[in-house]
Amino acid sequence: MKLNIEKALGNNAKYQEMLKLAQEKFDTLTAGTGEGNDFLGWLDLPTSYSDEDIEDILNIADRMRQLDCVVVIGIGGSYLGAKATIEALRPHFGKMDTEMIFAGHTLSGNYHAELMEYLKDKEFGIVVISKSGTTTEPAVAFRLLYNEMKKRFDNETIRDRIVVITDENKGALRTLCDKEGFDDFIIADNVGGRFSVLSPVGLVPIAIAGFDIEEMLHGASLAQDICLENNEKNPAIQYAAVRNMLFSEGRKVELMVNYNPRLSYFAEWWKQLYGESEGKNGKGLFPASVSYTTDLHSLGQFVQDGSPILFETVLWVNDDSDAPVVPHDNENLDKLNYLEGKNMEYINSKAAEGTMNAHVAGNVPNIRIEFDAVDEFNLGYLMFFFEFACGISAYMLGVNPFNQPGVEAYKKEMFRLLGKE
Predict the structure, then answer these.
(1) What is the strand order of the sheet 366-371 is part of?
(2) What is the pLDDT of residues 66-123, one digit of tens each?
(3) CB atoms within 10 A of CB 306
(4) Where are the domains of the chain?
(5) What is the DSSP letter of 343?
(6) What is this structure's pTM?
(7) How far apart are alpha carbons 25 and 30 in whole angstroms?
(8) pLDDT tens, 203-250?
(9) Fold equal for 2-33+219-397 and 39-211
(10) What pLDDT is recorded for position 4?
């Protein structure tokens, strides 16, 4: 991975000041002396698995892949990492060998009605992910689907088709799992949801989908080696420093930009990671995302010429795979013969370069993150990189990166309206 911040630097003295602060907060994070230091288990995840641990995940994945589809039930960090990875790696078109469906992330009635109808003639399994087992959205979805299973299958079949990922000692799902003998994996007490993609929370669904979790951990372990060096060339330190510099200069919104539709859901994972980690005490950048060139025809006008409140962080894939080449057309009615012989990835790269030049000229700072391919290795690398940089960045803002007190506000009001005691 290559981080390029040249198009984001204006005031170099200010950046140097922020770089120094980022290095100080690096020490806070790695020494475990900051707020939320009881949630640092994610730092060790890339290298924490034994061969037996991986084999356990792969064996269950092999069994679950014999089914028509698997429903992954979770919300927030309990599903976004797996969803982001699977959407990035799956084909744009055509079905996967085992269809992966996500539930428990919405209370929409018609979503669940259509889901139940879709599953009625399917051989399906469930991976339910929740530390407490009582979070409303996934708990309701699991009750519906578990009830459907009990109508259709015997107890032995159900045991083969449910995998539980939950707390080791307590909670509703732990109680049910121990009673019914479901296969289970542990959510460690020191790993919060939005930092859990490299735990069984993310790895189990990703493995069931048929992707290489060992390569993903390999990429993350390389990022771990690089991010754990406290120097000015550390990309996590640089990223945390430059985004906080831009925030201090009035840039209140960070746009995560992709030029590859595979990365759209990666941005959703990133938005939760930074929004929930930094958005507290009246502070924090607002994380948003766009897909270019598509959104250049909807939000491009605002980005180029609107309120100067944002900067862009561009994910660029140096894709060298085969792509269609623009053919010659004798009539040239569309005036595209100037593109004759050029492949789509080359055209896409020039669109990205031209957009960056135009936006920077229009006073929109740009950060560029380049990597070689959308694959398990690079996704693992990127996810650990963004998690590590997030811990530094939140400490630079003076907030606890690992709590989310504001999330409880809507729940309390919803429970009151629903009549929960």
Answers:
(1) 2-4, 366-371, 310-317, 253-258, 286-291
(2) 999 999 999 999 999 999 999 999 999 988 889 999 999 999 999 999 999 999 999 9
(3) 13
(4) 2-33+219-397, 39-211
(5) B
(6) 0.96
(7) 9
(8) 999 999 999 999 999 999 999 999 999 999 999 999 999 999 999 999
(9) yes
(10) 97
Q: Mean pLDDT over residues 241-260, rounded?
A: 97
CATH top-level class of 2-33+219-397: alpha beta
From the centroid of its chain, how far is CA 406?
20
Two tokens, residue 110: 């018609």
210: left (phi over 0), alpha (psi -120 to 50) or beta: left
Q: What is the dihedral of CA 357, 2, 386, 16, to 10 degrees?
A: -70
Catalytic residues: 276, 297, 411
Residue with tokens 């919803």: 414
Encoded amino acid at 248, one letter: S
**Which residues fall within 8 angstroms of residue 357, CB to CB, at 6 or more apart?**
none
Ranges assigned E (strand) in 203-327: 253-258, 286-291, 310-317
d(CA 142, CA 126): 8
Name the token pair of 408.
């409880």
Return the closest-CA partner of residue 45 out of 416, 288, 383, 312.
383
Between the alpha carbon of residue 60 and those of residues 64, 126, 283, 366, the distances in Å are: 6, 12, 43, 43
Cα 83 from Cα 197, distance rounded (Å): 10
Q: How far apart are CA 152 and CA 421, in angstroms?
A: 33
Are residues 227 and 234 in contact, defined by beta-carbon separation less than 8 angstroms? yes
Q: What is the pLDDT of residues 365-407, one digit of tens each?
A: 999 999 999 999 999 999 999 999 999 999 999 999 999 988 8
Assigned architecture for domain 39-211: 3-Layer(aba) Sandwich (3.40)
